[in-house]
Design a protein that fits this description.
The complex is a heterodimer of chains A (198) and B (121).
Chain A: H1 5-21, H2 27-46, H3 53-63, H4 66-83, H5 88-99, H6 103-131, E1 137-141, E2 144-148, E3 156-158, H7 163-186
Antiparallel strand pairs in A: 1-2, 1-3
Helix pairs in contact in A: 1-2, 1-4, 4-5, 4-7, 5-6, 5-7, 6-7
Chain B: H1 3-6, H2 8-27, E1 33-34, H3 35-45, H4 55-64, E2 68-73, E3 81-86, H5 88-120
Antiparallel strand pairs in B: 1-3, 2-3
Classes of the chains: A mainly alpha (198), B mainly alpha (121).
Chain lengths: 198, 121
């Protein structure tokens, strides 16, 4: 079907914008999405007889703005990927996607940050103890417990060299545990369309 | 404090979103359809569709969840169409959802009957 170059350009620019908004997705997924949306536009256009600019504008408007459709794909793909992954960054990114569209997702994301934060603290502490044993330690003071370096004389060191095995173990437990909790919780992520008729 | 009181349209949108998954699965109950087919069917039989483009990411998710599967098929129009159909798991899920929805709707109907009666007087 031939449209005037002007209309063709309008279709192309819509798809280009969608492609840009889909940026993060794997290229083969992007091209499949674009093919499906292009088919939708062309078929809508064909069923209207002579395609006028007015008609094309209406078709694109009914479809929705590219920058509103694209995040729906990203959210779903990111969540699906996170559910199948063991990597903290992938899992956390999935939670972040969910966090952007729901309060529960946000809470999960914060929980993930805390869990990974604790894991990182213990692991960095253990590695620090190996590199600079006189500076790094686990410190206990009145009402506080820190891992790392210390310049508060009120705190005294606990654990000593035990920080290395304890830090690595606790850190790993938090790392794996947080990943498992996030993956489990992402099963319940349902990202609904966020755009509506205006 | 209810935002819905000032904005019934927002409430309506939320309700529609909630039903869309089931409506899409239901449209595929008897046959394979491509995206625009599903849209046309939903348009004819319901008022659920807000923005047409949203249906494609939903189909994508349903596929990711293993409820539908898809395949590109050449068509005489010159551009291929992506057909979707229910997987066995999708059929089971759709049936469970439909049973739940039907029971749920009759409860709501009973609950709101007095409200509708009042309006008619």
């Amino acid at each position: 079907m031939n449209h005037s170059p002007r209309l063709q350009q309008k279709i192309d620019s819509y798809l280009m914008q969608l492609r840009r908004s889909l940026g993060e997705l794997p290229p083969e997924e992007v091209s499949e999405i674009l093919q499906e949306i292009r088919g939708h536009i062309l078929e809508r256009a064909e069923s209207s007889g002579e395609l006028t600019e007015e008609r094309l504008v209406a078709i694109l408007k009914a479809l929705g703005k590219p920058e509103e459709i694209a995040p729906l794909y990203q959210a779903e793909v990111a969540v699906a990927r996170a559910r199948a992954s063991l990597s903290p960054t992938v899992v956390l990114r999935g939670a972040l996607r969910w966090a952007m569209v729901s309060v529960r997702g946000f809470l999960l994301f914060v929980l993930g940050l805390i869990g990974y934060g604790i894991a990182l603290g213990f692991i960095v502490g253990a590695i620090g103890k190996m590199i600079a044993p006189d500076k790094f330690g686990a410190w206990l003071g009145p009402g506080n417990f820190t891992i790392g370096t210390n310049d508060n004389p009120a705190n005294h060191e606990v654990l000593g060299w035990w920080l290395i095995p304890v830090g690595l173990t606790v850190g790993t437990v938090f790392l794996v545990g947080t990943t498992r909790v996030l993956r489990w919780a992402l099963k319940f992520a349902r990202i609904r369309p966020m755009i509506g008729a205006r | 404090m209810s935002p819905n009181a000032e904005n019934p349209e927002n409430w309506e949108r939320q309700v529609k979103k909630g039903w869309l998954d089931l409506a899409i699965l239901a449209s595929l109950w008897h046959e394979k359809l491509y995206g625009l087919d599903i849209l046309r069917r939903l348009e004819q039989q319901s008022d659920l569709i807000l923005a047409e483009g949203t249906i494609y990411p939903i189909l994508n998710r349903l596929k990711g969840d293993g409820l539908v599967d898809s395949k590109w098929v050449e068509s005489e129009t010159g551009h291929p169409r992506k057909y979707y159909w229910l997987t066995p798991a999708g059929r089971r899920s759709a049936a469970v959802m439909a049973r739940y929805a039907s029971g749920f709707l009759s409860q709501i109907q009973a609950l709101i009957a007095p409200l509708l009666g009042k309006e008619e007087q």
